[in-house]
Amino acid sequence: MGSTTEVLSPQTELLQICRQVIEGQLAPDVAYNIIRTLMKTIDNIPSLLVDVLAIVDLELSTEKKNEECRKYFLEFISHLTDRVVADDVLKCELDVLGANEQTTRSRVVKTKTRLFFKQVKFNLLREESEGYAKLITELLDNPSLTVSKALTRLYHLIGQFNLDPNRVIDIILECFESTLQRRKFFIDLLTEFKASGDDICNILGFKFTFYQVLFLFFIFLSNVFVFIRVFFYLAKSE
After folding, report:
1. Does residue 205 lie within any of the structural domains?
2. Are residues 224 and 171 in the same domain?
3. Are 90 and 81 in contact (CB under 8 A)?
């Protein structure tokens, strides 16, 4: 019978390489060259390597390996840093590089929160003109649109274009203002949209403040105009 050669998975092969390094059986620079060779045929080596290094790092801390093993491991990591795996990634994953420190843990939590839980919302019309343009078109160009269908399309647009819900309420109010004959539709839409009363009051308050400033500006212009007329009248009479 012919001999069979066991084919190792990339993770197992990387784990063997790392363990040989910390046990002094394989020089760190030689191990680095082997990994560089593996990267030519396997695409996700950096990702797999981070997992393997985390396992070896855990073994070093739990099994109380001697200082020589730690030295080999750090030397091996120095070859990998920013060549195979980014330095920031290693510092966040490996205790031997300070990942267990409070500041590092806090930074990791903030980074993951920003990446996975923070929703990007476009508040200004110029930031997502297509989404808001479609929203206005849906609300104004289809008088026969029912509230339920409008609400469904509203949610689709918010999700597709990451529209800010408060800005959406603002646009609904603007469309309401321009088509008062459809007041029942817009009142029902705002009710079904579950727009907060506080949010609507804040938006309306901002609008009234803007109109008040605009009104005062027009008063100022009218006074300037009167002053100019009086000035020219007096100049002409002299």
Report:
1. yes
2. yes
3. yes
Tens-digit pLDDT profile for the chain (238 aa)?
Answer: 444 445 678 888 998 999 899 888 999 999 999 999 988 888 888 888 888 888 888 888 776 667 888 888 888 888 888 888 887 777 777 776 665 556 555 655 665 565 555 555 555 555 557 888 888 898 888 888 899 998 898 888 888 888 888 888 888 888 888 888 988 998 898 888 887 778 788 877 777 776 777 677 777 777 777 667 666 666 666 6
Domain count of the chain?
2
Q: Which of 90, 117, 144 is the last residue of a domain?
A: 117
User: For the chain, what is the total number of helices (H) and then of strands (E)?
Assistant: 11, 0
Q: pTM of the entire structure?
A: 0.42
Count Cβ atoms within 10 A of the Cβ of residue 65 and give its class: 0-12 exposed, 13-18 middle, 19 or more buried: middle
Which residues constitute the domain of residue 100? 10-117
